[in-house]
Amino acid sequence: MKRVLLVSSNTCREPSPVYPLGLAVVAAALAGSGHRVEQFDFLACGESEETFRGKMIEFDPDFVCISVRNLDNCDSRNPLGYTGTAKRLVEAVRRTSAAPVIIGGPGFSLLPEEMLAATGADYGIVGEGERLIRDLIRDLSNGARPASPLLRGERFLSGEEIPSPLYSGELIGYYMNQGGMCNLQTKRGCPYRCAYCSYPVLEGNRFRCREPGAVADDMERAGTDHGVSSFFIADSIFNDREGHYLSVAEEILRRRLPVRWCCFMRPDGVGRKEIALLKRAGLYAAELGTDASSDAALDALGKGFMFAQVLEANRAFNAERVPCAHFVMFGGPGETVETVSEGLANLGQLENTVVFAYSGIRILPGTALHARAVAEGLLRPGSPLLEPVYYHSPGIDPEEMHRMIAGAFRGNRRRFFPPAEGLDRLKVMHDFGYRGLLWDHLIRYPGGPAC
Ligand code: B12
Question: Fewer CB in a 10 Å sphere around the end CB: N or C, the chain?
Answer without folding.
Answer: N
